[in-house]
Amino acid sequence: MVRFARGLVAQRVAVLNRLHAWEYAWPDGLGLVLRVPEVLASLRREVEAIALSLLETDPEAWRHFQALQVLPGVGPSIALTILGYSGDLRRFRSARAYAAYTGLTPRLYQSGQLPERASISRMGPSALRAAFWMAALSASRVEPYASLVARLVQSGKPKKLAITAVANRLARAAWSVVVRGGLDKWEL
Predict the structure, then answer these.
(1) What is the full DSSP assignment across 104-171?
(2) Domain encompassing residue 153
């Protein structure tokens, strides 16, 4: 259901991107076409509501859903995405293992005599990484993440790298609140 809801968001964006072409190609039907993005948005809200009602039937999953929302930047939609793409977070042995699953951990690339180049591994589901990225954009404005971003940028790192570091920390914190029931200082 989470994947279906994300697909509806993608379709809405595609329709919005095509509206300018339809304005010239089919001026008489523009009134009908202008309703499509709102219909897709309301359908997405309906699918998310159904997913939430299903989640409420499982007390353990509902507890995990609520625990994720204590993290800065994580609201109901992002928490649903995290649970939908991660499954049971207790299956990961550590916070670092979960962060590796999300694909937000650094990975070194080297070939022959070329110098090493580092970037994130991108091993896990891209929608999960995107959810943590969106949460990190919001969380980077509040402490302790704002000071982390400022420290990394001041040391010469690009701002995108600093936001990715926040996303990595949020992934580790998500594992901690679900599995351990709280945040450890080292997780932040």
Answers:
(1) -SEEEE--TTSPPEEEE---S-HHHHHHHHHHHHHHTTSTTHHHHHHHHHHTT--HHHHHHHHHHHHH
(2) 59-188
CA atoms within 13 A on the CB side of 66: 7
How many domains does the structure of the chain reveal?
Answer: 2
Q: Are residues 95 and 177 in the same domain?
A: yes
What is the average per-residue pLDDT within 127-137? 93
Query: Is 98 in the same domain as 145?
Result: yes
How far apart are alpha carbons 146 and 49 in whole angstroms?
32
Q: Quick one: 172 and 79 in the same domain?
A: yes
Calculate Rg over the CA atoms of the chain: 20
- Say how far residue 106 (Cα) sits from the centre of its chain: 18
Where does a domain end: 39, 57, 75? Answer: 57
Decide if 83 contacts 130 (C-beta within 8 A): no
* 65 and 53 in a common domain: no
CA 161 to chain centre: 16
Say which residue the tokens 């009908």 belong to: 32
For 148-176, what is each residue's pLDDT tens digit? 999 999 999 999 999 999 999 999 999 99
pTM passes above 0.70 = yes
